Fold each of these.
Amino acid sequence: MSEGRIFHICERTAWDAAERSGAYQGSADDRADGFIHFSTAAQVVASAAKHRAGQDGLVLLTVDAKRLGAALRWEPSRGGELFPHLYGALPVAAVLAVQDLPLGPDGGHAFPPLD
């Protein structure tokens, strides 16, 4: 499977550290699972609601999937749906955009346009 852009949500402080080092190593959950979790545009809002509900101080990373090479694998997850997983660190150079992901008045995350 091939998507041009994929998305990852992380804490702003973790991303700031990644920018200084040149690579993002993933969250504690990512590292425990052995890969960095990503979502497509169609999946990322539901992923945020399931895994990041109520968390503030987050950013949305838009990533060029083509820059990740063979370390990016599409694997079944929720209900057999394929999700992108990165087996290795995310190079800062592969990130196309970093946007704040604030909580909206309803307590859910307020996403920018994903198209």
Amino acid sequence: MSGSVIKLENVSWAYSRAQDWALKNISMTIGEGEFIAVMGENGAGKTTLCRLLNGLIPHSLAGKLMGTVTIDGVLTTSCTVARLAEKTGMAFEDPETQLFTARVSDEIAFALENVLRPAGEIRERVRWALDLAGLSAYADYAPSMLSGGQKQRLAIAAALAMAETILALDEPASQLDPAGAREVLSFIRDLRDRTGLTVVMATNSGEEAADFADRICVLKNGSLAALDSPQRIFADQRLLADCAIAVPAVAEFACRMAALGKPLPRFPVNLSEAEESVVKWYE
């Protein structure tokens, strides 16, 4: 990481007519190229946090914002949604809510056309995004003909055609079957590795967070309960229980070993780390 691209300072947000704050006094800094998983029970504020990053809050949703959100050096309150869309791409849990054109290639071109990008640039960006998503062969297909995983990859590619700095994902695999979820998550990992994107992904899956995240942001009733490495988060059983966080199976195994007085040399959160720790434990 070479610098921060997201900075939240004492951020609170209440939706219009809501009786409580959806987010309460959140402060955090996210570095360039970092992958942050946002976890917490339903209603904890995960979706609201994602909406802060692309300007939906405060520009498109009614409510009250306190504090400041800075995206790639720009205050969101002093910037239009269109300008922020050039910095942060966003994809939601149900790709069907984002796809509405007649052709796959048109889906990617739509936002670029609306901000009046030159025709040559649009063609180049569409080709780039289709290639990145592995959908070049489907350019002339109707989006409705794609599988669930392909639709989500298309929604992410359409967001990235505008924004190459930050990708905000609101539970992108939650609506997919296991095969589709693996397809999309592998695509996200490849995107991050190939482009250096900063990724903020809301998820309820401990396995997803353990496999992908550099750090995990845990929300509890709109407040920041923790922001730390997957190893530290998943080793904190009190935090996990209090915030209703799903625990990866290998982390649960490590906790049980520690409870038996046989702690592993390094607390694992995924299968490769577990294999390495168990081998060392037997040496």
Amino acid sequence: MAKRLYRSVGQKMLGGICGGLAEYFDVDVSIIRLLFVGLTLVTALFPMTFFYIIAWIVVPVQPRNAA
């Protein structure tokens, strides 16, 4: 079965995007969050904030039966 990207239900702070990326790439969620904050600050907030909102809308929520 192919891996799919979902918004995390268990490791979410805001929308679950960083938690979902961490689960997809099998890395610690703190690393993804630090990278996201760093990129957000470097790109003057707007592009990464826009990406997060779009991802929040597009990426589906993790189904209950998925691990």
Amino acid sequence: MANPITQLFGIRYPIIQAGMVWASGWRLASAVSNAGGLGLLGAGSMYPEVLREHIQKCKKATDKPFGVNVPLLYPDIDQLMEVIVEEKVSLVFTAAGNPKLWTAHLKSHGCTVVHVVSSVKFALKAQACGADAIVAEGFEAGGHNGREETTTLTLIPLVKKALNIPLIAAGGIGSGPAMLAAMALGADGVQVGSRFVATPEASSHPHFKSEVLKAEQGSTELTLKELTPVRLLKNPFYDQIKKLYAEGASSERLKEVLGRGRAKKGMFEGDLVEGELEIGQVAAQIESLLPAETIVQEFITTYNTTLERLASLD
């Protein structure tokens, strides 16, 4: 499946595993890379020395390309970037912040830089800053999200029309047919998050994985837009937030209740009552826990069979 994304990253398939907080450690990243995709370490939930450890373990677990995802809204970004440069990571995905802050610095150290956006406006800004590719993430995606509420099927053609660098689609992509749809609209590859949460290799807690398997249509909602928009699985913590909205709570009050460490509590420690459970709408389609390699192969098999079925309609 040679195309601009496989050539840019040196991978077999244009499938990128999202660098999700509390899910994307070295076991998951190396498994996806070994299967022919691109695995990403989720630096957003790692202290600098923890990130270094995961990078080093990933290097031992795979001889294939892998990268690091860095959400720019977290503190100590300079320390994370220092580790990335020192460990000679060649692929870096940045998100949730201004690409101008770090793109030139990373590229000066030989990194290929990809920035995650939710709008045409920010895609153009990232391209102007020197990003090598863009991930355009639709409203369906789990975790931190854009305020525009633009769906993936609407966003991809808009961004494709505006860009002259490779484009990766994200948000709501949990199968080979969904991958084909995104690429039919102009994407050169796909970034997959939620489907890789439901794997043995994901570092998220088994309780959280079980809740993902139980998810149905309508089980998630994008909320906390006054702070940083995030798509959550509905649970008692989500109910607290919903009640606060009904009471007309201020941004300060929402921030106070959110506090610190909610995502870790829910997704890594398995507290399904007080924790924040970040997952995408596509969770409603996930019915089983499968190895990362099996998921990659299922994507490619069903992508090809769907392509063949559509070709037969002529």
